[in-house]
Amino acid sequence: MEADNPKARLRLPRRILTTYSVLIVGLLATIVVGTYLDKTFLPYTLGAGLIISLLLYGLANMQTRASAAAESFAQKLQTSESTVRTMLAERERAEKALKESEERYRDLVENANDIVYTMDLNGNLTSINKAAELITGYKRTDLLTKNLGAFITPESLETTRQMLERKLLGEERTNYEMDMRSIDGRTLTLEISSKLMLKDGKPISVQGIARDITSRRRAEETLRQADQRALSTYERLLERVSGLAQTFGTARDLAAIFRALKEFTLVSVPCQGLFVSLYDPVRDVRAAVYGWADDVELDTSQLPPMPVTASGPNSRAVRTNQVVITSDYMEETRGHPAVLVGPDNGLRPQSSLAAPMSVMGRVIGTIEVQTYDQAAYTEEHATAMRMAANLAAVAIENVRLLERESTARAAAEESNRLKDEFLATVSHELRTPLTAILGWSRMLEGGLETEMAARAIETIKRNAKAQAQIIDDILDVSRIITGNLYLELHPIELAPVLESAINVVRPTAEAKGIHIELDFEREPMVVSGDANRLQQVFWNLLSNAVKFTPPGGNVNLSLRQLDSEVELEITDTGQGIDPGFLPFVFDRFRQADSTSTRQHGGLGLGLAIARQLIEIHAGNITAASDGDGKGATFRLRLPLIGSLAKLNVQPNGVEQNAQPTQAPDVLAGIQVLVVDDDLDTLELLTAALEQRGATVTAVSSAAAAMDAIMAARPHVLISDIAMPGEDGHDLIKKVIALELVPGISAIAITAYAKDEDRERALLAGFQRYLSKPVELGEFISAVAEAAKSDYRAS
Question: What's phi and psi for 101, nearest 5 deg?
Fold first, then answer.
């Protein structure tokens, strides 16, 4: 340290000088003394002086070194003191920061919404925050003086013990739920997250956080119970509907039907009054045929006919074929004719539910239930009464049939038997997939492994599709019978449509080892038809052929031109058709085997629908078979327009290009604006148009469409109807206001597929209307025709 001290460097020469000065003085004194002594003593004197000088030199040198060491030590001590003072100051600052951090931590823990605690390994709480008092109601002192087992349930105590064992075995953190009793006796559910605290590598305590999830668990339990109640209610409803269907199936007069309907209604919906009326579409009136109110059956024979208006609950049910719920009956029926039936007890209905009775889409009457309670009816009640009304409609039609055909009882009984079989078949065909759906749904609620869950979901999807197909068939029959089946006829080539149907059934055929052989003439054959409906016919015939052909069999298809017709022949090597059943093979609800031991399911509607669709297309279909086990042949013929190569004029008068509308460049040079808020549909239509050579601008809103039109006028506008903000009707109004129509041909494409929706779109200004899901070939043809119209308008 001295070498680094300037003062020490300055004092060093002085110390050396002093030391040597003592030595020199000693030597000089010895010489001086020696001059005065006898020469005899001179050596001794000089030696003694030298020794004394050296001793004095040594003493001086030691003193000098000691002084230097003392000064160095003092300097080091001063430096050490400075270092210690610095360390003490830093330590004081660190302790202050630690204290502040601990205070913040304690404040955070103390004011946390969750319980923060520590517990020794015996279950005694050693610390706990204020949230414990707020959540449990216990004082902190009470919690800290008792074992955890005094507060939690025995089941939770065992769970806590198991969690502690898992932590002692090395599990770092455990999460579990624990039930404890609050001070007022309530059971609280706490979600625990805890870990083991160690000291010197040994466990000493448990630190954890407890979150109160009582409300969440109660909500989950309430939801689970609600789901269970809904499922139980649905199952009970199915049982009642099944019983009602059985009763209706045996009813031979209207009185029995109405009484069975009353019994079903009383246990299914709130009801102080029940009224049944039958609808006469010729006179457009309803006639009351049954009444019940306040536990008394009413005489309705003297009640006058009730005209069907536009606003009454029953009238709206007739007009819309929908259930109509009225929550304030007296207010909503104010100003309408009303008839008081039965004794007047001073009470008036406050709520009503009117359900239409319809058969195959044709309304034959209404069922109205009333109650003295306001807003009493829900969607569940509407579902129950809709099912009862539909069954009652079928039963009433059965009775009417029996009454009208009393002179031909055998035929009437056969018709009734077929309808009963159809109801039983519908019940069977719907309940079978429903059993799988409900069963797998319950298993999913209980939790399944990934592979089993995927299998459950696939099973539910498959059975749901089966139910949807049954409903579609029933609706198709309804539309055919009521004359409401709408077809869009266009020139179409049959081979691609037939190949699409083949591709649908091919996986099933390959799974059974059935070989499908094709014999198509190369010359294109074009008919005027609806591609979707013809594909439905082809699929029906092919699926029947595959279904009734044993594994390893063959299905042969031939497509040929016969003069002015095209003939499709489908032959299989299956079980064939019994000669006695062959005349009825195309009848509705008829099946060769309708017993409970039949090998193949279905409603017996497919061939009936196929025949009706082919006849609507001005064609015909026949069936032939040599008998059981000898296969079957179905032949259908359709009038032929001509091959695409020879076609010059379409039926609507639009000249045909040399190429079909499905050619890759049929839309070359066409500017198309597509508007749809569904991005998947927008992308599909854009890709289909661009593949045919069109230049496409795709937008997802009416506002963006107007911007695109103002920037560059398209040849064809294709717009969805239902869109947020402004819909397709608003868009076409703006386009018309700009006087761009018919300069821009407009096509509406929408999922709204009712006749009134089509009429509204056409009246709004669209030239064409396509319903989703749209067949791409039909879509491209429509765009091509619209583009030609646009060119002519230009």
Answer: -65, -45
Please tell me the distance from the alpha carbon of residue 412 to that of residue 755, in angstroms, as a whole number: 34
In angstroms, the first-to-last Cα distance of the chain is 106
Q: What is the mean pLDDT of residues 11-23?
A: 60
| Helix runs in 599-746, H state only | 606-616, 679-691, 702-711, 728-737
CB of 637 closer than 8 Å to CB of 562: yes
CB contact set of 632 (below 8 Å; sequence gap of 6+):
545, 548, 571, 572, 574, 576, 577, 623, 624, 625
**β-strands 716-719, 695-699: how paired?**
unpaired
Sign of CA dihedral 396, 398, 399, 404: positive
Q: Can you say whether the dihedral through the CA atoms of 394, 399, 402, 405 is positive or negative? A: negative
Q: For 558, phi and psi rounded to 5 degrees?
A: -130, 135
- Indicate the pLDDT class of residue 8, thresholds 50, 70 and 90: very low
Q: Are 56 and 22 in contact (CB under 8 A)?
A: yes
* Residue 670 and residue 693 in contact, taking contact as beta carbons nearer than 8 Å: yes
Q: Output the CA–CA distances (angstroms, integers) from residue 494 to 393, 545, 635, in the order listed.
A: 40, 19, 15
Confidence of residue 275 (pLDDT cuts 50, 70, 90): very high
DSSP for 516-529, please give it. Answer: EEEEE-SS--EEEE
Query: Using omega within 30 degrees of 0 as the cis cutoff, is the peptide bond preceding 639 cis?
Result: no
Greater confidence (482 vs 218) lies with 218
Tell me the CA distances in angstroms from 36 to 3, 48, 50, one per residue in order: 47, 15, 17
Q: What are the start-end ranges of the E strands in 200-248?
A: 202-212
Query: Residue 750: which of 662, 664, 685, 659 has the closest Cα?
Result: 685
Question: pLDDT digits over 662-677, tens only?
Answer: 556 778 888 999 999 8
What is the DSSP secondary-structure string of 339-390?
---S---S----EEEEEEEEETTEEEEEEEEEESSTT---HHHHHHHHHHHH
Is the CB of residue 498 less than 8 Å from the CB of residue 538? yes
- Residue among 339, 294, 345, 347 nearest 314 (CA): 339
Cα–Cα distance list, 248 to 185, 328, 365, 395, 471 (Å): 55, 32, 16, 6, 21
Q: pLDDT per residue over 451-508, tens digit each? A: 778 877 877 776 676 666 666 666 666 666 555 666 777 888 888 888 888 887 888 8
Tokens of 513: 């080892």
Q: What angle do CA 74, 76, 78 make, to 5 degrees?
A: 70
253-281 burial: b if 16+ Cβ within 10 Å, else e: ebeebbebbbebbeebbbbbbbbbbbbee
CA–CA dist 576, 597 (Å, integer): 18
Strand partners, 180: 152, 188
Contact 126, 143 (CB under 8 A): no
* Burial class for 299, CB neighbours closer than 10 Å (0-12, 13-18, 19+): exposed
Cα angle, residue 119 at apex, residues 179 and 213 outer, rounded to 5° = 30
CA 777 to CA 491: how far, in whole Å? 11
- List, in sequence order, every beta strand (DSSP E) within 445-499: 490-493
Q: 497-511 burial, b if ≥16 CB within 10 A, otherwise e? A: bbebbbeebeeebee
- Roughly what angle, to the nearest 10 degrees, separates helices 254-268 and 379-404? 170
